[in-house]
């Protein structure tokens, strides 16, 4: 008795072969570009986003707020103005940019250069670091969700955990080691300052979010988005929200980051010297939906490479058994909890296993 193989099984087997062949090169998307491809492989083809009915792509009618942190610790009236703006930005957009944040522009430029240096090393040098083992101190690969996402993203990524246990310098690539560690120190300071402002914006003590452990862990992701020969067929990063408390993002001058606001994709235009800050899923849960963890994406681009560095304030998969849920002080009879409690580890595992499929992981934890 023979068994017939269905068309869908054949397609799946072919797709698995293509994914394995791509992963086995250990050269990422950059490897495809280095080979001079003019047509992108099918596994990178994204279907149009059906969920965004009105997609005025690249709308500039609205733009995310830019907050000036220059005198925020010295002038109480200025501080109150920033708190009011950060509250409004967090409730309405879930995103804002910060300027005069205290991190020297030279550090930002050195970091972008360091990430670029890493990716532009000889492929044979990088192959030794290419891994799917999330527990390594430095993880470099392409598409963490290669086997679960409906389509691959046009980007390569490295991840390292900078806090609470910074890696040994020898565990990081020499070409970007010093600047990664230096930047981590700066971002930790900035993150604590932003958590204080967010705490006050919620009507809580300035140290409330810090004391809950929001600023204990820091993950740094260095993204490399090569120029794409067919950018209309794929994405740099699929629509998603972040699985952390807070994200601080450094993007270069090329652009491509978009935020989903009122069913419209809005460009987050690069501002010289600015950093993009956005609320993560876990902080949306803690504020019982008051602050929004908003979906965003990155377009593929004819020009490149685009460099960005995202720092996630999160304990990630190495986190403790501490439970997070809506903050008790923010709840009332009129505002009951909308989420069950969970550990950050549980949330991150669910998020990573699910992959960037365009559906928010928050739904899984709603009451």
UniProtKB/TrEMBL annotation:
Top-rank lineage group of the source organism: Eukaryota
Gene3D superfamilies: B-lactam Antibiotic, Isopenicillin N Synthase, Chain
PROSITE patterns registered for this protein in UniProt: FE2OG_OXY
Domain Fe2OG dioxygenase intervals: 214-315
Molecular function terms from GO: dioxygenase activity; metal ion binding
Cofactor requirements of the protein: Fe cation
Pfam family, one: DIOX_N
Keywords from the UniProt entry: Iron, Metal-binding, Oxidoreductase
Family membership: Belongs to the iron/ascorbate-dependent oxidoreductase family.
PANTHER family reported for this sequence: 2OG-FE(II) OXYGENASE FAMILY OXIDOREDUCTASE (PTHR10209:SF836), OXIDOREDUCTASE, 2OG-FE II OXYGENASE FAMILY PROTEIN (PTHR10209)
Name recorded for this polypeptide: Fe2OG dioxygenase domain-containing protein
Gene that specifies this protein: Vigan.07G218700
């Amino acid at each position: 008795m023979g068994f017939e193989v269905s068309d869908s099984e054949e397609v799946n087997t072919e797709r698995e072969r293509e994914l394995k062949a791509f992963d086995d090169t250990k050269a990422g998307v950059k490897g495809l570009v280095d080979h001079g491809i003019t047509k992108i492989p099918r596994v990178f083809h994204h279907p149009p986003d059906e969920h965004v009915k009105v997609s005025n792509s690249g709308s500039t009618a609205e733009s995310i707020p830019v907050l000036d942190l220059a005198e925020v610790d010295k002038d109480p009236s200025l501080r109150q103005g920033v708190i009011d703006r950060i509250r409004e930005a967090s409730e309405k957009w879930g995103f804002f940019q910060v300027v005069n944040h205290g991190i020297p522009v030279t550090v930002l430029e050195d970091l972008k250069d360091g990430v670029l240096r890493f990716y532009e090393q000889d492929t044979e040098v990088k192959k030794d670091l290419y891994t799917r083992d999330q527990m390594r101190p430095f993880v470099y690969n392409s598409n963490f969700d290669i086997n679960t996402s409906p389509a691959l993203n046009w980007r390569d990524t490295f991840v390292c955990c900078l806090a609470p246990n910074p890696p040994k310098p020898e565990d990081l690539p020499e070409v970007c080691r010093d600047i990664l560690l230096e930047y981590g120190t700066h971002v930790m300071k900035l993150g604590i300052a932003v958590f204080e402002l967010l705490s006050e914006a919620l009507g809580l003590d300035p140290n409330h979010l810090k004391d809950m452990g929001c600023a204990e862990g820091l993950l740094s992701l260095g993204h490399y988005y090569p120029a794409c020969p067919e950018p209309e067929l794929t994405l740099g990063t699929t629509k998603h929200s972040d699985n952390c408390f807070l994200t601080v993002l450094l993007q270069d001058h090329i652009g491509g980051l978009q935020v989903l606001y009122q069913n419209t994709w809005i460009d987050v235009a690069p501002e010289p010297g600015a950093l993009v800050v956005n609320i993560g899923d876990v902080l949306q849960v803690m504020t019982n939906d008051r602050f929004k963890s908003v979906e965003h994406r990155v377009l593929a681009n004819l020009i490149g490479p685009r460099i960005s560095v995202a720092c996630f304030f999160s304990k990630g998969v190495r986190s403790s058994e501490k439970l997070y849920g809506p903050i008790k002080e923010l709840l009332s009879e009129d505002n009951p909890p909308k989420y069950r409690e969970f550990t950050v580890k549980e949330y991150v595992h669910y998020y990573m296993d699910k992959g960037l499929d365009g559906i928010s992981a928050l739904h899984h934890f709603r009451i």
